[in-house]
User: Fold these one by one.
Assistant:
Number 1:
Amino acid sequence: MAEYKEITTSLGLVVPRYSPGEGIGAFTETANAPFSGNIYDNTANKLGSVTVDGHTYEAYHGRYNQSPTLWLLKDGVQYYESYLNVISTWSGFWCDIVSGVATVYWITCPSPSDPQVYTFPLPPGYSAGNPFEARKIVDGISEADLDTASWDKSPTTNFDDFDNTDPRGGEYADTDPFNQTDVMTLDSLPNPESIMNMSYSSFIGTYAMTATELQSVGDRIFSTNIWDQILNKLQGINGFNDCILSAVQIPVAVANVTSGVAFRVGGVEVTGSSVSKTTTRYIWRDMGAITLKEVWGSARDYTDTSVSIFLPYVGMKEIDTDIAVNATMTLRAYIDIWTGDVLYLMHTSNAGRQQYYRQEHVSYRWSGNCGKQVQLGRVDNSTQLLGVLGAVAGVAVAGAGAAHALGVAGASKAALASSEAGIAAMKAGAKTALISGAVPAVTTGFRPIVQSSGGIAGSVGAMDYQKAYLVVKRAVPQYPNNWREKIGAPRYQTFAIEDLQGYTLFSDVKLDNMGIAVKEEVEELKRLLTTEGVIL
Amino acid sequence: MAEIYLYNNHEDPIVADKFLAGLGSTSGEFRATVDVLRPTFTIKSETDNASANYCELPDFGRYYYITGRRKLTTGLTELSLYCDVRKTFLTQLRGNFGIVERQERNYDMYLNDDKIPTGARKTVSIYTFSDTPFTGGNDNRVIMRVLGG
């Protein structure tokens, strides 16, 4: 697998070993740059020479198939070439602008710990432009840049110009270069607080309670002290469920929290309570960035690769490799704490493919919910309390021998007096009865009515990972040794055959001026060139 | 009589500009009707060289593979030839243009290559995002919205 390294050379240069799209320097050929067809023989194109271990290395510049090219000859024989790529193992060309002079660095590495750098200044006429990249050979594979020549120019508007290989959109063709300044960054997204800016603070209160705070409120509201219960009833706190709009547990840290606030519900302050309150509805958090580099430097990185992402409280989602590969993906989560809704935004910046996509854009968004509904319990003690009062009076009267219900017309003072004594006696007795439940008259009607509002929604996401991650599946291509010498690599472009070297298979070839060749021979040659190929 | 130059060729037929080891020349005659692409040529057996698998016929201006060798009873050897159109017309070929489908040096790795297979077993890599807002624990909050709160 290709890997990226940086080394510091003996000359103190920090140079990349493998830097797709990140060459340390750049140059391009201007209209006046000197070059000639057969550059090996033209000493005017020679950049310099150096002798290493008894071998003479000479660097030449020129043009190879319309591309600025550098060659390195070893003892007069072509050794390395670099036009769109560098063919070498731990060696290669870089170009940089040093003190205003475009300079070629040839670096060779006989062993990983012994890098050597030689420099050749370029002649005038070269300026900053297309980057050269140094790439490592892995198992006989070298990588080539994407041929962007046809995309560098604006498309023609002449739809009938079939010889023009540029995109042809007719008279309505978009001939403007795409606007690289129109980027979509995460920071340019509007603040949802401003979008949904409306203060409810005088009408609705939002409490962000910790477990301890919630427990303390519960203890106060659902106090076992009967007098606290009576107080709550009188204050109307017992019916507070009607004033609760929602209660959601969220596993995130909430911002803008004010602690030590008394809990109020329905306009009534629960005395003795101390909770936290917040005015923020939306929070967001950057979850980090991942740069997914190409591995093979080929179409396999896109066609035989699958990328999926796991998002907490959402699950697994697929991502288009055209967007994900060779891009930096930044994930951000927005959370609505009122509901627990989560919105993930994935921002991508394609470092190596800028001419095809906007430089930066938010390419994906997914939503889920991290909230867990909190079950609220409402205990209606009103019937129970009335039962207590009535039972106390009834038992007392019964205890006195004659049952006289309170409030019955004609109840005698004696009955009342006995009731009072009975009440005092039954206070203790009633409590005992409530505890033991032995007195049916007391327990009947004491059945607490518990209502719950909101079921336990329970987020299954809480049972899964809480960090997002990418799963990248890559197929492993089987490259035989020296495969390009035997079968070549894909290309679909018209070339002058005289400019080609090595194995070549043609898709189509038009053979003119074939001298004495007869028709059968021309057809035979054409057949061979398009089926078996030729080594030129 | 026509001259024939005999060679030994050890290079793949796909190579255009072959390196040929010369084995001398001899003369012979064409047999009957001559097919420029597939001629047969008769030479004296004593002048034949068994190592020859390639030849040039200057009169035809062509290079040929020797595809067959028959010993005739009259002390003659008949050579069956097949024109090597790649080498014969290499100069003319270089003056033309073609749409290249595959090339050894000038290629685009980002075009799909159906000649390179991939294994069934894939590599699976996991990349984890470094941060998360879902910290739970002490950060757990119950967000309670109340009327008159």
Number 2:
Amino acid sequence: MSSPAVTGSDTAELPLFRHHRLDSIISGSGTTAITTARLLADASALAERLPAAEQQLNLCERRYPFLVGLLAALLRGQLVVLPASRAAAELQRVAAQPGTRYALTDSSITVAGIERVDYRPAPAGHLWQGPLPTLPGAQAVVELYTSGSSGQPTRHRKCWGELVTGAELTGLRLGLGALTGGYVVATVPPQHMFGLEASILLPLQWGLALTDGQPLFPADIAASLEQCAAPRVLVTTPLHLHGLATAGVTLPRLAATLSATAPLAAPLAERFEALSAAPLFEIYGSTESGAIATRRTVEGEAWHPLDTVQLQEQEGRWAASGGHITTPQWLHDRLEPLADGRFRLLGRDTDLLKVAGKRASLADLNQRLLSIAGVVDGTFFLPTSTAPTPRLCAFVVTDGTPTATIVSALRQLLDPVFLPRPLYTVASLPRNATGKLPRQPLERLYRACQPGGQ
Amino acid sequence: MSTELEHAVAALIVETLNLEVSAAEIEPEAPLFREGLGLDSIDALELAMAISKQYGFQLRSDDSDNARIFSSLRALSQHIAAHRVS
């Protein structure tokens, strides 16, 4: 099967579903089984209830309502906007965009200033009439955001063609064609790029069923997998894999495991392959580019770009293009090219850090910190640490405002994973002559803040 | 006034999550997640692993129970007391 590169001017219509029929299972596990026809009925009924708007803010927490909302938006020609986090400030920012008139939710969350539409399945008797639908490849379907050193978020719109091609290339690499009729259990939310690609697009395009939940604890992940018939695919992160390997829960036999958001250590990969009796693959990618490369961790550290995806170097930085990546995208890591187009990762751009698999720009975090009343000066800092999930701390110079007040304000602005642990109040920050904060003085400051520090 | 188990669980939380507060500073009835101690779901997972290792049982999340079990140190300790094997 050839894998054509997608161009922005692609006018072809592409199927919403591949390897699915109207009567195949698209969602469910255990006692629930939802067919593609039922999904389309739910989506078309929801589509009729949506306000006229350019954009839908999709805040559904469960995967099936998220998908119904996404399809309903597509049926109405609306773009689905996916906030980078659930911090109140981020939801406000997205809600304030012209064209975002409503939020679709399956919980009690509200977003000030816009209408709220509650997810509901279709009323009994509401059926989907017609064949499986298609969508123009050039139709913009989702918008995601990243923050960079400029402080302003960057928008990334994905068109249907890019998402389909990305799913095609990933599925070919992973051999998903052999798993038609299987189930995907995911521990990641559908609103982030990895969850969108792996827990929504892969099932739609490879004849798999998605499952509703987002299990966290090892026993819950095992139970979710038990509730699905084989073949089973687990979409997850190193943190969850570590939990599963440590807990010693019994897993049913899997067909494959897919991990992303942070690098996975080879010993853990080996343990997990033994536990799951299945190959474990990692995906390397970004919000901007989508999936770029894969590796089977136990085979070595080299990454293998997806077919037709290319990496090019320019002045020490690398960009990915080709395949589903319609515009070349800068990568945020330094690479070492190896033979056969493979590569090794060397380390991140210094401004971009990851905490528990979530990416943030240090400059952006600092801007937010400095925007808080009572903070005279401040910076976040990620100490070198051997803890399983290293956390940021922060140093602030205050006007006397209590740290609890500052942390409370931060909670409105940031994904909770980036909240400082702890927030140290200091007399001053070790800025140099140009106002920068080099790492070494910060490390000294960090040590001085520890109990027993000088 | 906290029980012996509450103190042990508080110590486990502080040690597992590398927190700056001392075990004695964790109010038994104060929220653990979002407000109060400000823990998040990553912490919940790491805690679950530590609890399983220390007390010999697996934490499950049940829609109705999860919020309650993790609502405070007291609630978590009661849950552990009811399910512990070691």
